[in-house]
Write a structure and sequence with these properties.
This protein is an all-alpha fold. It has 18 helices and no strands. It has 3 domains: 1-130, Alpha Horseshoe (Serine Threonine Protein Phosphatase 5, Tetratricopeptide repeat), CATH 1.25.40; 148-244, Alpha Horseshoe (Serine Threonine Protein Phosphatase 5, Tetratricopeptide repeat); 255-331, Tetratricopeptide repeat domain (Serine Threonine Protein Phosphatase 5, Tetratricopeptide repeat, Alpha Horseshoe), CATH 1.25.40. Helix 8 (133-146) packs antiparallel against helix 9 (151-163) and helix 16 runs antiparallel to helix 17.
């Protein structure tokens, strides 16, 4: 930890005791929160320092860039000049995966001068990365209150509701989000998950269907709308539709272990045991720590009379399985 972090980290450490953590770190954090290309021209540094800093950032030498800025910050830690440097280095820490240091830098900057809106949002995403929903929510609430027409802020508050199992609250927010931004694919996907958790299967399928349609318009389609739709269709006993959606999910991301596992489930339900085994083995190879494929493999091998292999798979499942109590992550 850098000396910048050391001076404040104690306060953060004590604040973490006995507080709840985020149940699921959302997979779409990076696309929202990655800082734009850094522009050092506005920093109160001399010409040589700005040139050095720009070169380090171009090379993605974040450690050297952090070291340069922290040295300047420590020379005069409470000035307006330092507030700008702290806000800037917070973005570098975030890119470097130093989420606690990023948060510390931004909060120190805010103690001197108001944070810019993009920095406050990325601060909230840093808290998400730190699995601190209780810290992230107030930052998003500030943004949402000052920008009520911003669908992204409302969406993230709904994500927090979802992770806290507050499905009705999430649904209300997401209905607003889809009015503000009718083309937000992930809002419909999350809405479908919420409907499914409250037992409204038709509402879930309808929302997933809209997410699947919008997903096709994305530059890089996500596998999740099709995967979530497939699971809902399995609940509705539409195995043909589920299988088609899973093949589409795998087309979008061939390395998503959960998609191969769910395809194995569908194929097993259809009696296509050889194909199911292939899909499940693919899932297990893509994510060696994922227990579910091994349980289903054990069941299929048992049905096929291959008791020794079946027992080995069940044993592997038991070795990998960990308690999941209280987690609300994707199915």
């Amino acid at each position: 930890m850098t000396s910048l972090a050391k001076r404040i980290a104690v306060a953060f450490t004590f604040a973490t005791v006995a507080l709840p953590v985020l149940a699921q770190v959302p997979g779409d954090v990076p696309q929202d929160s990655m800082p734009q290309r850094f522009n050092v021209s506005g920093l109160d540094l001399n010409r040589g320092q700005r040139a050095t800093l720009q070169a380090e950032l171009e090379k993605r030498d974040y450690k050297s860039a952090e070291k340069l800025l922290v040295a300047e910050i420590e020379r005069d830690p409470k000035s307006l000049r330092t507030a700008g440097l702290l806000e800037f280095v917070g973005g570098i820490f975030f890119l470097d995966g130093e989420y606690l240091n990023a948060a510390i830098a931004w909060k120190r900057s805010e103690a001197i001068a108001p944070l810019a809106e993009p920095s406050r949002f990325t601060l909230a995403m840093a808290y998400v990365r730190l699995r601190r929903l209780d810290w992230a929510r107030p930052e998003l609430q500030k943004l949402a209150e000052s920008n009520p027409q911003n669908a992204l802020y409302a969406y993230w508050l709904a994500r927090f509701d979802y992770d806290e199992l507050k499905y009705q609250e999430a649904i209300a927010r997401l209905q607003k989000v889809t009015l503000l931004d009718p083309k937000m694919t992930r809002a419909y996907d999350l809405l479908g998950l919420c409907y499914d958790y409250i037992g409204d299967l038709q509402g879930a399928i309808s929302s997933f269907n809209r997410a699947v349609q919008l997903n096709l318009l994305e530059v890089k389609p996500s596998p999740w709308p099709n995967l979530d739709m497939a699971i809902a269709l399995m609940e509705a006993n539409d195995l043909t539709g589920a299988e088609a959606n899973l093949h589409e999910a795998i087309r979008h991301d061939p390395r998503l272990a959960k998609a191969h596992y769910q395809l194995g489930r569908v194929l097993e339900k259809q009696g296509k045991f050889t194909e199911a085994v292939d899909s499940l083995n693919t899932s297990a190879s893509l994510d060696p720590g994922y227990p579910d494929p091994h349980y289903l493999l054990g069941r299929i091998y048992k049905r096929l009379g291959k008791d020794e292999i079946a027992n080995a798979e069940v044993k592997r499942f038991q070795e990998l399985q960990k308690p999941l109590v209280g987690l609300a992550g994707r199915r």
